[in-house]
Each structure stands twice: as C-alpha cells, then as structure tokens.
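Troubleshooting log. The previous structure file for this entry was overwritten by mistake, so regenerating from the original sequence record. Sequence copied from the archived sheet and checked twice against the printout by T.R.
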Amino acid sequence: MAVKLYQGHSPHLPYAEVNVVIDVIRAFTFAHYAFIRGVKEILLAGTTDSAFQMKEEHPEYMLAGEKNGLHIAGFDLDNSPVSLLGADLLGKTLVQMTTNGVKATLNALHAQHVFVTGFSNARTTAEHILTTFGAHQNIQIIASHPTGDEDLACAEYMKAIVENRDSHPAPIASRIQTSEAAHKFYDVNRPEFRSGDIELCLEELNTPYVMKVSQKNNSPRIVRVDL
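Regenerated output below.
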C-alpha cells in the first residue's frame, strides 16, 4: 500500500480517505494524556481570539495550548503533558490552540476520516488504520512541524506500520529525543520547558482508543474512539 507523507502545518493536501496529523512535542501527546485523565472532547481553535470566544460562550470550557511553545496568558493549561498527570479532567471540554498540531489539523479536514496522534499513541492509531482502511490507497500522514525530525520520524514509523512493514520504536524514540525541538527541554536555563514532557513524549502507551476529529456542527473537535 502506498501512503503519502507531508510535512508542515499548512501543506497543500488533496482529498484523502484518511488523514493523520502528528504532533509529538507536544500537542497530541498532551491530548492523549488529557483523554487518559477523563476529558470528554477537545475543541480546536485556530487563534487565541477564537479560543477566548469559545470560553466566553461556554465558561465551563478549559483553554489549553501554547504560542511559540509558551503558556498563553489567560489559558487554564499550557501544552505540558506532565501537568496533566494528577489533573482531574473527568467530563471536561478543552479548547486547544497550538502553533503546529492544531493548525495542521484544521488544514487537513478535507478527508473522510481525520486522526491525530503523538508517538505515545502512534502504533495503536496506525494499526487501527491498517485493519480498518487497509484496502484504501489514499492515506496521508502529516508531520505537523515544518522542519522537525520528531514528527517526521513518527510519520515514517506510522507509514511502515500502515504498509504492514517491519517497524521498531527504539530508533524513532531516539530521533525524537535528539531532535532540535527537544533540546530546550533539557536546557537548565529554560525552566519553562520540562524535561519530563519529553519523557512522556517518548513513551508508547497501550491505550485502547484512537483520537479522531469530528466536525460536528462545523466545530472541529478531537474525540476518543474506543477500539
């Protein structure tokens, strides 16, 4: 099976049966842990203004995300999966706005099925696509960081799984850990970035669900689909 790879948050994408958007550091690792902590759904906002507007209309929503990797003033949460480890998010709705992953997803909606993932849920997602859509040829995987090797490594890993080829996680984890995007998380002079986030981004989890984008009511949102 031929699977096409794209890189960047706004590539020109033809229509596809399946689009998969990857953001390892950290948007969709964060989303994965948010669902583990009980989140109901994650609405996608293209701008901070649209995120604040959603919050104004629905004060019970929680805003999460980053701009240039940093916490956005007025948001309830940043983009750190470590911050979610002890959080009680049961039944909550999040609104997520990020530099690459969310933007790439909003630019990848022209498909029958859209999934998002980080490395933590990459194998589960790829195996689901293989078993569910294996007969289809138009599957596209988008590494959302325009230049980052972490997303490209994960995309290549998923491509191998979807094409039912040998795939090994260790070299992919190594590329993620040594990627340029990961460097600042190990910089003692950058305490705003937590090395623990990268540790979570490197860990494959055996969670029995995928993260799929619903366009219900023309409001794109990530929902948990149990397998």
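The CA atoms of residues 74 and 149 lie 31 Å apart. Archived copy saved in two places this time.
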